[in-house]
Amino acid sequence: MPRGGDNPEVQFRMKSDLRNELGESYEATLAEIAKRAQFYDLEGRFPTENMQLLHRNGLLAYCVRKEFGGLGAGPGGDVGLYGRIIEDVSAACSSTGQALAVHGTACAAINLLGSRDQIRRLSEEVVSEGAVYGFFGSEPTQRFTKDGGRPGYDAEVRRAPGGWIANGQKFFSTNSMGAKRFLFFAMSQADGEQGLAVPIIAVDAPGVKVHDTWDNIGQRATSSGAVDVKEVFVADEFMLGRPGAFSQVSPVLLSSFQLTFALELTGIARGGLDFTIDYLKNHTKAPAGLPTLGHDPHVQGRLGEMAVLVEATRAIVERAVQAVADADRDPTLAAIAHRRVLQAKIQASDAAIEVGTRLFQICGARATTRRAGADRFWRNARTLSLHDVVDKQRAAVGRDLLGLEGDMGHVLASDAQRTNTA
Ligand SMILES: Cc1cc2nc3c(=O)[nH]c(=O)nc-3n(C[C@H](O)[C@H](O)[C@H](O)COP(=O)(O)OP(=O)(O)OC[C@H]3O[C@@H](n4cnc5c(N)ncnc54)[C@H](O)[C@@H]3O)c2cc1C
Description:
The chain is an alpha+beta fold. The chain has helices at 8-11, 15-22, 24-43, 48-56, 79-92, 94-113, 116-129, 245-248, 251-282, 297-329, 334-363, 375-384, 390-402, 416-421, and strands spanning 133-136, 156-160, 163-173, 181-184, 186-190, 193-197, 200-202, 208-211, 225-235.
């Protein structure tokens, strides 16, 4: 499919267009996932039923190219569709949204880096079997730079006959309890093949040990525990590109990766607003002389304020989605796109946490019962917004305005002049 399609208007699909494209099953899928959100939050385990449901309705293959049976969403395809699906699923259940987003990022990386045969084989697993992928970069020993960059990885690969041997420890490994395979970021020092390598490893390969340790306060069903890889053989056909190739990959992949967090956090804010409306209509006691708490003008005002916050956040995130779609067609727009994505991530982080707090102000003390499940929005926003330090992202936007360079993977400063007028 052409990169980004021909018509920019088509890039950003509104919900009604998507409903037409995916049919009634899209809304029904979201409704079913939303019904299970509280259950999975309490259970804190991988949302297998939701991922299977997404698979049955074709949505797990959203980032698989159309020619291989997918929906063709994501960088190199339809970025608007990518944004819509991640935000909608996250609004229904933010853990499922993150699981789907990480899987989609892995599929997008395969599309950008893989050989045609690799893309075909790996896409086939997603389309026909419902295979889920992980994207394992983070390491317990890793230190970030002051600008949020990753100076390196302790995980390693070395040459072996017919392939590679991989070793390393990962943590915060989303989907680790539900994935079939994962992209494993590791350094190669092999002769003539040095740099960051991305072998694709099967979760059940000899030498892989997944630790079901994820018990964090939010995003509890993402199964983001630890994974050990010890002397695992990876055949050449499962090495994604040559070592060093990932660092050369389109900057749009990095931007779209950060965009997923803006979308997921916007989904959490939307979910919190939906929860608040439902609670006011159905679950709370009415004040004296009023039919429901929602008839109280103070509550109405607070709700209106929350809705404006959510809509403003959606607008800035939609702008970022459009910018990434534009940069996908025209790489000279990559710096603008990345700036818009960081702005959207900053706004969505703040808004999701705010909604998670304000909904208690509106719904009142009864909403603090565990049964109500209102606390999951704040816990999810608080946890997810720590993925890539948002203060460093604020600083990157500030640096960009000042025309200074940083090491966040993009030289935003080269575009500083345009920032001042954008
Ligand atoms: C829910 C969730 C799911 C995730 N899933 C994945 C995944 O699937 N794959 C993956 O690869 N990773 C994943 N991550 C991990 C993520 O990419 C980071 O590795 C992780 O958030 C780092 O957290 P940290 O507390 O170790 O470090 P940080 O967040 O970097 O640091 C903790 C604190 O130290 C401060 N700090 C850090 N470095 C500096 C410095 N140089 N100067 C000044 N202050 C500093 C920060 O401001 C922050 O307050 C996930 C994270 C979350 C929250």
